[in-house]
Design goal:
Strands 1, 2, 3, 4, 5, 6 and 7 form a seven-stranded mixed beta sheet that branches. This protein has a three-stranded antiparallel beta sheet with strand order 8-9-10. The chain is flat and about 60 Å long. It is of the alpha+beta class. The longest helix is centred in the first third of the chain and has 28 residues, at about 50-80. About 20% of the residues are buried. The protein has helices at about 1-15, 50-80, 135-140, 145-160, 210, and strands spanning about 20-30, 35-45, 50, 85-95, 105-110, 120-130, 130, 175-180, 185-190, 200-205.
Length: about 220
Amino acid sequence: MKKIIVFIFMLAVFQNMFSVETKKSNIKLENQYLMIDGKIPVFYNKGKYIGNSSNKVKGGFRALMEMIKMESNKNRLENPDNRDGKFILKSDFKKIDNESKIDSYLVKTFYFTGGSHGMILEEGYNFKNGKEVFLKDIFKGSINYKGLIKQKVEEQIIKYGGDLYYADINIPDEEYSFYFEGDSLVVFFNPYTLASYEAGIITFEIPISEISAFMKI
């Protein structure tokens, strides 16, 4: 009995050695015309800074922030009474619980630059053994993983689609955004990719049991 307990403990310690942790970097700015509130993940593995992934998130947010600031300054000159309200940029993130060996994080961003509604964006970051991985790293080399994912997405659209999607829907053949949640691989698309803004973020949950034979994890 003691040997089993020790084994389970050592296994948990071994798994945690490669678990990615985050710290939060805050970027805040507010005035009469603008409100920016960015909570940016900074990724670490065993205390070591994961630069490429962390800089990608921070760089993307800062680029968007500069665009929002420029649009806000332009709007301030054209509409000094500020009838469009404050321009807004907000970002936050969370870790997604799952049953795989992948650490998945989801970064959520919202911005508003006038008009009838703002824009929501999501981006997935996934790590194995402290290194960011992409779909090509998760599937076996001989597998056309893009074609496989596209097939699974098309099956769900046909089964559940209804009037949600564009009539001439075209699933992009790209490096899909994804994360792992529960016992599924979740592929997702931001607004206007497959449907109108009102549809929001569109997600497709693909049970790992259906594709595990093609995967390396």
